[in-house]
Design brief:
It is a single chain. This protein is of the alpha/beta class. The chain has two domains: 201 residues, Rossmann fold (3-Layer(aba) Sandwich), CATH 3.40.50.1170; 118 residues, Rossmann fold, CATH 3.40.50. Helix content is 28%, strand content 25%. It is built from nine helices and 18 strands. The protein has an eight-stranded mixed sheet, with helices on both faces. Helix 2 packs across helix 3, helix 3 runs parallel beside helix 8 and helix 8 packs across helix 9. The longest helix has 15 residues. The chain binds asparagine. Asparagine binds next to loops. This is asparaginase.
Amino acid sequence: MRHVVAYGSDHLAEERADVEQIVVISTGGTIASRWQGSGFAAEARGGDVVATAVVPEGVSVRVVDLMSVNSARLTTAHQLTLLRTVREVLADPSVGGIVVTHGTDTLEESAFLLDLHHDDPRPVVLTGAQRPLEAPDGDGPRNLHDALLTAASVRDLGVLVVFDGQVHAARGTVKVQTLATDAFADPSGSRVGDVGADGVRIHRRPERPTPLPLPSAAPPLPRVDIVMHHCDADPLFLNAAVEAGAQGIVLVATGAGNATPEISTAIHEAVARGVLVAVTTRVPTGPVAEIYTHGGAVDLAASGAVLTGTLRAGQARIAVLAAALASTDPAERVDALRHVLGTPGAPAPGTRA
Ligand SMILES: NC(=O)C[C@H](N)C(=O)O
C-alpha cells in the first residue's frame, strides 16, 4: 500500500505509506474486562484495549468509547446506538473501516443487526476475547490485530466477525464455545476467510439481502421475546409474552421446527392479535422445515409463524426485531422478516400497495 504524493508548492514528490484509518468502537466485553473482587466485568476504556494489540503496518486507529458493559446486559437501545454510531463514523470518507470490540455473549446479535442495515462497501468487523484484558495468555490482542487487518483489507463483505484467526459473515454465526478461544462458527455454513501470517484470505462472499433503512430509535422500542419448547411445555410462556406486550416472539422449537397442537393454536391467536411469530430450533445445525404436522412446523407455519431457515435463536430474534422496527403494520412486518431471511420472491419492505 505505497504510492507517490506531491507535498507543498515545491511539488516535492515523496513516497509514503498509504495509511488506512480504522475506527475502533469500544463497547466492553471480556476484551475490556478486569477483576472486580468477585468476578470479571467490562471496565476498561477503548484506549486501554487498543493498547494491548499490535496495530498492523499501514493502519492508523481512532477510538470511539461508546460503552463498557458485559454484552449479556445489552439492550435494543444500546444496539441502535451502536448502529447509529457506525453510520456517523462512516459518514467521514477518510475512514477506511470499523472494528467493534464487543462481548462475545451477544456479539452475534449486534453483528447481525448491523449487517441487516449496513449499506457501505467499507467493512464493520466485530471482535472480542474469551480471556480478560490483562490475562498473560489473552486472546484479545491477536483478535484485535486480525480485526484491524481485516477492516483495512476487505470491501463489500458486509459486517464480519473476526475471531481466533477466522473470518465469519455476521449472518449465521453463533458463539459455539463458552470458554475456548475458537468461540465462533457458522454451524450450517462455511466461514468467509482466514487471517494468518500471510494476511487475510477470503474464500467466499456472504449473501446479503438489500440493506434495511436506518430504523427509528424513538421509544417505545418493540418487545421481542424468545420462548423455548421442550417435553411437557404448554403455551403458558408464549401467551405470557403476548400479554406482556410482545410485538414479536421467537419460538425455539424442537427438531426441524416442531411443537404441539396447543402451541400452534396459541401462535394462531398471537398472529391474529398482530404479533410477528418466528420459529427456529434448539438443534445446533441445519434448517427448520415444514415436514411434520400434529403441532409440527407444517402447522406452526399454517398458524402464521415464519420459519427462519438456519438462523439460531439470537439472530432469529434480531430478524424479528428488525422487521418490527421496519414497520408498524403486521403484514409489512411479515414482508420485512421474509426479506431479511432472504426468502425468494419476498417483497421489499414497504412496497405493499
Ligand atoms: N467472552 C466474553 O466477552 C463474555 C462476556 N461475558 C461478554 O461480555 O459477553
